[in-house]
Design brief:
Order of helices and strands: HEHEHHHHHH
Shape: elongated
Distance between the termini: 92 Å
Strand order of the largest sheet: 1-2
Strand content: under 5%
Radius of gyration: 25 Å
Helix content: over 70%
Number of helices: 8
Amino acid sequence: MPGLVELAYTTGGGVIGAALTNYLTKIQDRRQLRAEVYRRLEAARAISGGVHEIRIGLPPNTLTSRKTLADALGIVAVLEDGTDAHRALRDALSELLTAVLVAGIPRRVADFAAGAHERVLESAVATAVDRKLGGIADSGQLARAAQDYRAETTGLLLAVLWHPWRARLRARSRIRKLRVAVHALHRTQETALAALTRPEQADALHRRLDPDGTLRETWIEDRLP
């Protein structure tokens, strides 16, 4: 039968061993959570900046208060594999949001990061339309502004992911700056949307994308009672 010293040593070793195992498990889980966030970020980045071309889509929607450029023009932005970019991004951002919340990142930080990908996609669509017809003074500058904003929001998200306590000290001031940046970007994008959705611009784009009018005939059919 072990003595008191041996018993204490054995018990202490078991406690320390269990604590170490628990600690290592948490580290492994944390690494897995971080890796998942990185994967979801990369997927969203590839989609938001991966517009391959634009095509005729559903009839233009001018009634929705929060419409995208694609909605307003009746077009669809597609990725290289033919996937609808907006639909793909919605799915990717849903998965990203899940990953960052599970990783313990605050919702408002996640929302800024997700919104930035939407801004990049909107700028990518504007650039694709501008390549067809023109109409934006500097579509390249618009795209760069959206990408810079995405880089800033991603930087904040990753800072919170890796150093949550340290990042919390600067998070409030960084979020204030992001709000200013996104308001400026929104105004710029609204100006571009207004320029590209003028009736003559929209009509010229539709004729370019659908020369024989076959696809646009479905718009008329959809409006019939």
